[in-house]
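User: Please go through the entry that follows and flag anything odd:
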Amino acid sequence: MASKVITRSKVDKKYTWNAESVFESNEAWEKEVNQIIEDIVKVRVFQGRLKEGPSTLLDGLNTAYALLSRAQIAVMYSDFLNAVDATNQQSAGMRGKADAMNGLVLSAISFIQPEILAIGKDALDTWVRQNPGLEIFKHSFNDLFRKQAHVRSAEVEELLGLVSDPLSAGRTSTGMLTNADFKFKPIKDSAGREFDVTQGNYDTQLMELPDRKARKAAYMAYMDKYVEHKNTLAANLSSSIKANVFLMRARRQESSLAASLFNLNIPTEVFHNLIETFKKNLPVWHRYFEIRRKALGLKKFSYYDMWAPLAKRKTKIPFEKAVDLICESLAPMGNDYIETVRKGCLQDRWVDVYPNQGKRNGAFSHGSQGTHPFIFTSFTDDVSSLSTLAHELGHSMHSYLTWKNQPFVYSEYSLFAAEVASNFHQAMMRGHLLNSVNDKNFQLELILEAIGGNFFRYFFQMPTLARFELETHQRIERGEALTADSMIDLMAGLFAEGFGTNFDMDRERVGMTWATFPHLFTDYYVYAYATGISGANALAGRILRGEPNAVENYLGFLKSGSSDYSLNVLKKAGVDLTTPRAVEETFAVMEGYIDRLEKLLK
């Protein structure tokens, strides 16, 4: 691997996201943001008037959603621009302006829900029958009345809209601190070669180095920077949790967990079933950790050993080859599906591909109806990057098909559903490649990426973080303080239980792991990774086994957006996440991978 990370200006344009397809220039974006702010008045003229009749209600909704759509596109553009180079001061300023503009828009449309509720369900049902244009809003109306007890007056809703931006200050502060301000010390391997440590290459490259000395140095350099700022980071996350608890109480919910899951009509038992099933199956993880420890020849293993390569060689997979392998794996989905994937990656520049200085760590899919479903990643020409690309393409195809088949009101989908679509691609890819490629080294790499990459992140780290999240929220709800040291102790204790007896616990650094996951600023999101990977493996299994209508049912799920509740669309697709069955099935899939791993390592 290259030891130096190039600047953003030196990245080949064909490997950058197609920003100009959204706005021709930053000046065009600036003009649109200013225009959106001016156009807020077009929504405000409907305030207090929605009760006038079905035509006024329809006009008001269409005007509001048109403005919200434009705002989302502007926010997405600034977010993506900042993510690819957090050191760019212009993009940082644009992101701040976009967030402020979005807060104004949310405040401006906040009167809509209280006024619809004031009309009453019976009258609204009559209006829907009288005006066919309102028919598409029927599910959103029904969902609103389901939430009625927790929707406040127009004045309170306006205030809650106005505070959305300041209440996100902890997230913004942490993002700027860790992505723009953090400068990590370079490290050296056993041969004396120097490597930069950045947010973009830490997970994707440095933790996968075969040299244990280099991995340890990179881990210490990376985590020590977080430890150095532990009090600020803890205060930021604590303030975010307090904001969640404030909103829970403002909406008169019984707990922050109940409030978060209520919005998606998901019973809290789904969360608790996951946690209990995870805890019950920790011996499966202990077995894997022991196999990895012995394969590395260690008496005790450390956190930075989790990604150490066990394969004899690293298969080189250029970006274009990765796209081919993913498309081959998705063949059961049909030609239209795979050609959309191929064109998006190779022609329409959905993907911002390679690492550069200032680029954030991680990977995500991001867009809005009216744009491409863009992908942010740091591709490193290996199996891990192949898997990450497959995962993010799952998100992007979910967005693509939802935007193509749903009106704007249903153009988004829940985080709960999102992780099913992304992990589905990875499950399909393994199902194909493990049975079609005879190269044992490549098979070993695939299985190690499956367990040590995908499953370790989504089926070990995320449920552990969910346990951390639940406890930290409950402490705030009880009026207890959260400090950096108490959060470190909690996190370290949960990981000690998860890793088992032969783990070399570096308590402060391992205990700071929570600070490296910005996901925790989105309330009760991390658990959805684990339910998502469970649903994905169950649905992929149906297709790989050739069950009747499995493909059609799955595509129906992708096309549904939020036109129905997530649990319902997933049930129609073939998986019921209200029971622990899918989680148990996925642990069985993981055990199958562990069995294959043992044989390949002999």
Summary: Residues 440-477 form the longest helix (38 residues).
